[in-house]
Amino acid sequence: MIDVQKIFITDAGYKHTLGAVRSLGKKGFYVIAGASGRHAQSFYSKYCNECVLYPDPRDEEHFINFLCEYLQKNEVDVLLPIGYLATVAISKHKNSLLNYTKVPVADYQSMQIASDKSQTMEVARAQGIPTPREYTSIGYIDDYPIVAKGIHESGRVKYINSAEELKDISLSDYILQEFIPGEGYGFYALFNKGEARAIFMHKRLREYPVTGGSSTAARSIYDPDLKDLGLTLLKALNWHGVAMVEFKKDQRDGTYKLMEINPKFWGSLDLSIAAGVDFPYLAIMMALEGDIQPVLEYDSDVKFRWPFPDDILHVLANPWSAKQVIRDIFDTNVKSNLVLDDIKPNLLQLYQTGISVIGRIGRRNLRYPHGKPEVKA
After folding, report:
1. 20 to 30 Å CA-CA from 157: which of 55, 73, 95, 183?
2. Per-residue pLDDT tens over the stretch 290-326
3. CATH architecture under which domain 6-103 falls
């Protein structure tokens, strides 16, 4: 009898975790999905063999203690973190966890730099990678709008249009950058101790928030300039594991400007899998076998959309995009994470979409949850 390899995946409530669970389940792995809440969408997938409730990763000590105890009692071949908090905590305690299983994440020294936007920008500038202008003092800002970004983790963004709006911003919590007008691009990679083992690139077609956020529809691309920038930055960190390097293509001069490193799996993971770069599988095989053959080619011009709640929120915030969204629904070449033979997670997504929309309407932040940059003509 052939032993089935067991994979423990964290953050079962995320849409990209569902993509990983489905992909690994189809390949015959025994998938253990973990989350801090009972109603995580991956728990409802037919490819999830076991559901585990663990402490919230914000409580790092209890989270790591739980993982160590679980791994001591249960045989697991690879621990694959997905979300930011879980990834950072597991990186920090990787040496302890390696006593029980394989853990394909970056060392904590590199993770600390990638998780801190100020340190990331310093490394990027040292490598000659273009970055937005940064303001280190509120008193010397001479051009608006600017963007206040939380130093740690993606998503903490505020658009600032005047000195008056800066009063509630603390430079100990945020970095202040010039606003870069342009479209969002991503470079994705799997590294093995400083060497690239898989790459992928995409362009955002729709996003939420519409002022700049996660992809609700995206297309695979290949751009050697984008590749070189992403590789240069991750090599400078001697990276290990997966990471996304996010850029904007500045419409004023056509150059890529670094936004941040997302030192973990990314929300648009389904697109890379659909285009032929199965990052979860590759990361696991690299962990199990020590190395893999590089995967440096993939299908470009693959289009993928995420209906619930992503594209729904985009359309509600930007009704003018409805025509394109409807066109994509009926275009058989456009892929999505709606899977008819594994529909239960999608039904939960639909329910959660309704809750999210009602909540955002109640808070009056549906259209511009991060504020709206007032760009001068």
Report:
1. 55
2. 999 999 999 999 999 999 999 999 999 999 999 999 9
3. 3-Layer(aba) Sandwich (3.40)
